[in-house]
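Sequence in, structure out.
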Amino acid sequence: MNTRPQSLLPLPHAGEGRGEGRRAPAAVLLLALALAACATPPATRYYSLASTLPSAPASALQIELPPIALPERLVRPQLVVRSATNPFEVLDAHRWAAPFNSELHDALASGIAQQLGAIDVGTGGRLAAQPVYRISVQLRQWDAAVDQQVQASFSWTIRRSDGARNLACQWNQSEPVGAGIAALAQGAQRLTQRAAQSMAAAVQALEGDAAATCPG
């Protein structure tokens, strides 16, 4: 039987092809690292509306702050801001310590109680012999403009539990802020503190005079 000679491919010399083999996994590793870096979300930063105020001497005043009425778009933990390019922007990487409605409620309640030296019956005990001032608050407008200001429009009604004294007030104020989101959050905290001070002043005025008007 005749056999035809088979053509033989030359074998690679020792060491040939190893460089390419090493470079391929290295390239894959670099690509994976690049994709992982792109996929990593930015770190989330948290802010609070609460501020520490000097507490007034303890008094027999008692307050109660029901849940605050506010626009539905603000009921979320993310900061909702207005920028030069977007009139409504939700910042996932910048959040309040709690949903905004809860954060605002707690900051106002604690601020009012501290200003008056009062008992917040929503978080503590209640003196049975003393009336309670119920402060119903509505946030009608909240505009947080990045690098500019925070503007808020509140209305509130104060009713004493014995029905003897009532007062309704409105409050529109703004607070300038510096550059950046942290400065915006700090401005929102200052504005909330000022609102709490105005509400506390209204309670104090009503406690002193049943015919009191809203403080200027």
